[in-house]
Amino acid sequence: MGEFNKNRKLAFIPSGNNLYLHFLVFLHWIVVLGNLGAMILLPIYCLMGKVPWYYAFPIVTFLSQVACTRINCPFTNYENKVRKKMGKEPIDGFIKHYFYAPYIINPAKEKMRCKIRAKKKRKDKEL
After folding, report:
1. Residue 100: which domain range?
2. How many domains would you assign to the chain?
3. Which of 37, 44, 92, 117 is the most buried (most CB within 10 A)?
């Protein structure tokens, strides 16, 4: 999945000081958030009558399919090429690497480790 530095304050940007990689990731976040915004706003505009349903429905369907399936994203492929030239490990998926891993997966693992340690301490005190 690529390296993850726990000491980073902002985990949604890459580690290191390569300006081009930071720009590429920033641009990728703009595209991702723009697609998310379109998926939210288009149905609202459709219900308000500002956008016809035959425009909104296929666009939202396409954006949902792109966002929710494992397609080969050109942005992620290009980022992996840049990372490889820098000597960094390629990432598995953009959202997984910059959002799920630092903010959802790793904190859940850490919480689980804390619970296990607490149980061990209680068992040690009982003995």
Report:
1. 19-126
2. 1
3. 92
What mean pLDDT value characterizes the chain?
A: 80
In a domain, 14, yes or no: no
% of the chain at pLDDT higher than 70:
76
Q: Which of the residue ranges 18-22, 27-31, 54-58, 67-71 would you say has the lowest mean pLDDT?
A: 67-71
d(CA 31, CA 26): 9
Give Cα separations from 26 to 59, 85, 119 (angstroms): 24, 19, 42
Establish if 53 belongs to a structural domain. Answer: yes
In this structure, what DSSP letter does residue 104 have?
I
Both structure tokens of 81: 């090429």
Query: In this structure, is residue 57 part of a structural domain?
Result: yes
Using the 8-state DSSP alphabet, how is residue 88 labeled? P
pTM above 0.90, yes or no: no
Question: Does residue 68 lie in a domain region?
Answer: yes
Structure token pair of residue 84 = 């490889």
- pLDDT, position 17: 72
